[in-house]
């Protein structure tokens, strides 16, 4: 059935059916989704649909306080929908402030409470005593919150840790928990993981064998 040009022009876009509207939103970048959600209530409702937020990349470019605050706000709202999550710290030599470190702790706590992931990618996450991090910062609670989050996951199929410089104790503890609680695990990527620790490398090789 064909419609005339005039009939198409008379379509009320705010009344588009919900399911097709959500499918349209899936093809949009996050910024475009946000802009579109401001059009009307119906489009905002589509923007809030959980299926749109099953896959998400959190990228921190250097402003730890602002970036982590926005990330916490997002996770509070959409953590229950997340299935595929990537967290990347693009500027690994940045010196974060304590507020940013505290926000990261909140981020991992909300993830622990609200989501069960299928895929998890973490990139450039430094141990508090490595890199150029300010040694006066209290980062131990954030590392503990991260460990608790990873340990809470039961449905992981794919994990990728790239340049995750945890201490030997923390790293091996996490690997043990992953192995014991994720029977469906299909892929575990470890690049520059526990770098510089010979015993840890032996353990990782044993873990992967």
Automatic annotation (TrEMBL):
Q: Enumerate the spans annotated as F-box domain.
A: 10-56
Supply the name of the protein: F-box domain-containing protein
Where does this protein come from, organism-wise?
Araneus ventricosus
Q: Which SUPFAM superfamilies match?
A: F-box domain
Mention any Pfam family matching this sequence.
F-box-like
């Amino acid at each position: 059935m064909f419609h005339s040009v005039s009939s198409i022009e008379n379509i009320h876009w705010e009344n588009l059916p919900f399911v097709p509207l959500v499918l349209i939103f899936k093809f949009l970048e996050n910024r475009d989704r946000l802009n579109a959600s401001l059009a009307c209530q119906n489009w905002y409702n589509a923007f809030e649909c959980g299926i749109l937020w099953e896959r998400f990349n959190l990228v921190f470019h250097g402003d730890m306080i602002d970036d982590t605050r926005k990330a916490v706000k997002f996770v509070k709202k959409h953590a229950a929908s997340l299935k595929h999550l990537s967290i990347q710290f693009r500027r690994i030599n940045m010196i974060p402030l304590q507020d940013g470190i505290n926000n990261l702790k909140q981020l991992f706590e909300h993830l622990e409470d609200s989501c069960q992931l299928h895929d998890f990618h973490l990139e450039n996450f430094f141990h508090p005593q490595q890199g150029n991090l300010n040694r006066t910062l209290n980062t131990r609670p954030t590392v503990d919150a991260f460990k608790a989050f990873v340990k809470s996951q039961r449905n992981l199929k794919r994990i990728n840790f790239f340049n995750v410089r945890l201490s030997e104790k923390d790293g091996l503890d996490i690997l043990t928990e992953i192995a014991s609680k994720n029977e469906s695990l299909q892929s575990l990527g470890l690049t520059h993981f526990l770098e510089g620790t010979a015993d840890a490398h032996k353990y990782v090789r044993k873990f992967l064998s």
